Amino acid sequence: MQAWRVHENGEPGEVMRLDEVEKPTPGEGQLLLKVRAANINFPDALLCRGQYQVRPPLPFTPGVEICGETEDGRRVIANPALPHGGFAQYVVVDAATVLPAPESLDDAEAAALHIGYQTGWFGLHRRARIQAGETLLVHAAAGGVGSAAVQLGKAAGATVIGVVGGPDKARIARELGCDLVIDRRSEDIVATVKEATGGRGADVVYDPVGGEAYAKSVKCVAFEGRIVVVGFASGAIPSPGLNHALVKNYAILGLHWGLYNTMDPAAILACHQELTKLAAEGAIKPLVSERVAMKDAADAVQRVADGTTTGRVVVVPEGMAR
User: Fold this and answer.
1) In angstroms, what CA-CA distances link 239 with 26, 54, 61, 214, 252?
2) pLDDT tens digits for 229-249?
3) How far apart are the first and last CA of the chain?
4) What is the mean pLDDT of residues 27-53?
């Protein structure tokens, strides 16, 4: 079978290689899945660069999120275990971690539902305890992680302000349902948020970017607001001034979704059931901007790494790309 493998760390477009490898054999408690779609996540790029918190042995196959098909024909969502990731024709996964793919979503959409939407749901509901009527500020609102938070915020009854970079991404953020969109390249984030909220600021900030985005967030977060830190796509990890959090009465909340897999796996299943319900109702639907062929996966991962894509880019079998 074919599988993309990283033989040395570096930029995805340079170090990912499409190899012929042996089809994996499932062990006890495992399932063999035919990959129907593999969603690209920013951590895939970090894995290629050797900058992720997990560093699998070389060579490895990236791809942490798929929609697959079991040998008896069931469509499922799974997170393949590294070093044998999802950018391959077949994967082996732990049977206990497999979840049913929502019938309301196609393969590419189902592949993009799991990590980004679970992160959004846990961040907004479990960590920030968002309430209907509150104002949610989402950075990178047109991206894969941000677009999920926008939809989940709207489903929770919040007023959603999306921050994006450029007019094309601004258009997409509006289509996703943002009540207000701020183009960080041409508008003042802090002043616009304060004006839109009557000086109060945002009750909840969802930040997958870090760096300058976080610096702006602390200047426009509301009294008793909550900043949920979910990643550092900018490459800059901020150093919070805890004296500032003290005098302004806001909370800084970290979220590592993967930790729930070991600390509270039942919560993962409960969240999936809620996401499946929301998808069936049409309240959420992963924004799949591109379905790329297997042969183009390395280029697609590079573009996600460079921040030039919107929504989700999903790797699909030959003939299904569009």
Assistant:
1) 44, 22, 33, 9, 12
2) 998 888 889 999 999 999 999
3) 23
4) 95
For residue 229, which of 245, 248, 203, 251 has the smallest C-alpha distance? 251
pLDDT in tens, 193-220: 999 999 999 999 999 999 999 999 999 9
- Quick one: tokens of 116? 């980004």
| CA pair distance 281, 322, nearest whole angstrom | 26
By DSSP bridging, strand 312-316 and strand 30-39 are antiparallel
* Cα 158 versus chain centre, distance: 20
Q: Which residues pair with 91 in a beta bridge?
A: 33
pTM score of the predicted model: 0.93
Q: How many CB atoms are closer than 10 A to CB 19?
A: 14
